[in-house]
Amino acid sequence: MTIRGTVAVNPDTQVDRSAGVTAPAGFRAAGVIAGIKPAGKPDLTVVVNDGPYYGAAGVFTTNKVKAAPVLWSQQVLTAGKLKAVLLNSGGANACTGPEGFQDTHKSAEKLAEVLGAGAAEIGVCSTGLIGERLPMDKLIPGIDAAVAALGATADHSLQAATAVMTTDNVPKQAVLTHPDGWSIGGFAKGSGMCAPNMATMLSVITTDAVLDQPHLDHALRNAVGKTFNRLDVDGGTSTNDTVLLLSSGASGITVAADAFEEALTALAADLVKQLQADAEGVTKHVSITVRNAASEAEAVAAAKVVAEDNLCKTAFFASDPNWGRIAMAVGNAPTAFDPALLDITLNGAAICVAGGKGVDRSEADLSGPEIEVVIDLHAGSASATVLTTDLSHAYVEENSAYSS
After folding, report:
1. Residue 399's pLDDT is what?
2. What is the pTM of this model?
């Protein structure tokens, strides 16, 4: 089930998809079947930091409707320390009121008891259908089973990445090993309700580098801003979005903040590419780059509008180089530019030049799975890229049947 391969990042680092959260020293993980999902698939993951350092940082959904585990994890992370993370699929535990928060608290207390830690040192994440409480009679015993199954092999990492899946087709994980002897590993899940400010997406990233908590937090926020927040499948920002970064310090190697952030960004970018490739109903992997905007924020805003526009997305699905839809979408963005200078390139074909028709549409070949859209605003020097997908029959069918 795993996606294997190696992606070059720079001469010093490589991202490898054959391993994940257990690759850095000091971490164990497990993924088990607890019975939360009625189909009897893996649905409970535990990631444990064995130290000697327990630094942690997190980035969460900006949705006003936040799930109980998000509220819990935000609360415990104020101390900047986590010894373990508990994640379940099969239920979001969102919009479940005080009882749902109590369920999260109980699950954190249970894992803390088994590990000999405190509940305030346990992060919790959930994913699945909103509005239903979790079956605690299955989740609590499942924690015992997950702890009993903990290990540090590549298989344990894959099991952990698998048990958080909902509509995902494949688990998504990666590890980056630095030649200086430290590493970063992680997994992510998510294939729909994906938009900037994250997605129906959970990610746990581990590192054995020695780095203080403020630098962990700063690096994570910058990396998320450039990677997870640049994936926009359908414009839906979830109630449960969470990215957690845990540091064990087990390598004993102190890493410069800028070097760590570069490596973390590379790892996160690879996980996001995997999320894009496995998006719900995907047939096209679309990259939208806006160049020469007045600011990076305006470049992101313009790219997001195109990424979320259904007319653009259906044209991508049809392999139709209908650049007029892209021009229309850009014109609706909160971005300053002169329409008479607008250029649009599709897979290398300059199909719109100076706000009007460029080369013939037949020169823009969109028949393959990769579509590159480049929009030049000629309004400044900033640029940004947002990843998205097409709007297919399969996407509609999958989401119309999700809760049944």
Report:
1. 65
2. 0.85
